[in-house]
Amino acid sequence: MASSISDTGNNTDRTIDAGSVQPGDSSALDFAASLARSFAASLNVDATVRQALGSIIQLLETEAGSLFLIDDAGSQLICRASAGPVKIDGLTVPLGQGIVGRTVAEDRLIAVEDAYEDRSFFKAADQRTGFHTRSVLCAPMRVGEKLIGAVQVLNKRSGHPFDARDSNMLQVMANAAALAISNARLADQLLEQERIKRELELASEIQRSLLPGVDSDLPICGINRPIREVSGDFYDYFELPDGTIAFALGDVSGKGMNAALLMAKTASLFRCLGKTIRDPARLLSILNREICETTSRGMFCTMLAGLYEPATGLLRYANAGHLPPLIKFPDRLYETVAPDAPPLGIVSDAQFVDHEINLNGGLFVAFSDGLTEFRYGEEELGTDGLNLLLDNAQHKPIAQRLDAVLRELDQGGWQARDDLTLLAIDDCTAGRAFQRDHRGDPAAPTEAEFLFGLSFMAEPSRLKLMRASLRAAARACRFDEDEIQDLLLAAGEAVENIMIHAYGSGKKGEITLAVHRLPDGIMLRLRDFAPRVDAAKIEPRPLDEVRPGGLGTHFIRAIMDDASFIPLPDGEGNLLELVKRRRTGPETVGDSPAGVPPDSGVSPDSGGGSDSPRGKPGVGMDSKDRI
Amino acid sequence: MTVTSIKEEQGRTVIALSGEIDLENAGDVRKALLAALKHKKDVLVDLSAVSYIDSSGIASLVEGLQVARKQKNELSLVAVSARALRVLELARLDKVFSIHPDIASAIAARP
User: Which segments constitute the STAS domain (chain B) (predicted)?
Assistant: First the structure.
């Protein structure tokens, strides 16, 4: 065996000062320096170790040698390279044992002149290999204060024992080798880090490919910004064949690769199931069971999933333990309910609930807590902060609006603490006529509570639908059946007027109807996008003239308490506001005769001009043109 | 169904209307009335099953009335539903049309 293991009590040790090199060794020193340079250039630990040992054996002219490094645990030495007749690569030696172990434990160079005088020397190894160990020289390898191993050489070829020059030389070379090995280790670590980084980049790229591409034609847009390379958040949306948009936003518990993998799975399942399942609650329920079956390590995923119809503004969503969405109508904030079901992956038979809302030109924003937990010092952004930022970026296309929110946070010194994901649906950009009117509409009076909005083509076949919707709203406003019938007649007449007079026969346009509840009645706002109608020209016909036409306006005036055009900028169409109050008034049962609403148009002033004061004053607006 | 039935009864044409009459189908009502009037007979319009009628439906009735009167026929309304009557009243046409509770009394009024 090429290594000698000596007894710790060996009294043949010589400690040599390795700090200086004798004069006359300059050629050897040059040689050592050049070797040190060459193996320091190597960036691979194994190659460096072999090269270092080879150089040392060559320089000291020995028959054999071996190089040991301390293992990761720091408890033993492992032979990483050996040269000579017998290979001992992989041999382990406990710290403090044998010449090598003692060299490291005592942190000093040890020289043994005659191994066979050392009682514990492995003679058996020599006998088996035929190698005869005479003298041993072993030096610790150190980088700065840190010991990393030891290198030992056996038997000078000349047959002489090791001298002080050899000792000095070995120590110099050992330290040079230590530096080279340390460099190579760092290089290996860098390579490993580089490899992990590349893999993360690849994972990140694959994750990004799971997110939908930007489609500026759609009224929906999302942003995902991971705090690390990979994200536990995701969002997705896609258009179904009928124009409905399926969307989802999720947040997997935890960060890093585990979260990213569950995210990828959940996002893929959504993309697959979302194409066929038109029921958000059912979709979440299926996703939940699937994730429950396979998830591990207590991971789970909060998620909002829904369907949005750009054609109507109708949005349905279900919430699995996620933050409630922010829903902003043009004039006010909608109170959303807290999640009513647990996150996905926790309870396999959890029940999910569909929520339905008509956006009516409003904004729907789903977000991960990474957004609301943006910090500025101790202050958290919160939902209110997000709402404010969205307001600041009003009137911008949705993608720019989201960008503006993030830019404001970044430039304002806010710090992200988690993956950040934001998904917004802007009903104003849905391509319906409704978008423009609501934005341009004067705000409804504060006592008016928005009930619903309808957007429909100016076609007579839509009248029944309009009336059916309005009938339900009127019941909700506690009108009696006679009043409701009158209201339907008046609203129907107003819509027909738009069809016939504003758009003209044959021309198709959009009509939107916004229904508001008043404390004592109902307010309808009918919007068209036709050229401006002169209110003065919409005159009821003289009733004693028996001929078709003009009747509709008369009905409107007879039935409604107020019917006025709200001025809009040129080219923005027409907005007619109709108000009808219950004859019972806000609280008490009134005394007006059945079937005749107060001021129902049968009074003497009903034939008056457009400026004649009729009924109660209009709500909120001053410059209306009464019809 | 807007125009539910057209039948002859003692020399009159009886047209029964039903359901909701608005801009979508008022044209059908108008055509049915004018077609019936081509036979130069009195026309009775049964409005018992009309749940909704608006100005366009009323306009068809008014046009029918005008054509009838020009050719010395009468167009009368019979069994007018409360809803249709309300609209006729709103239009102040309840005194313009002759309105009868049923076909028999309409026939009796113009023997």
Answer: 2-110
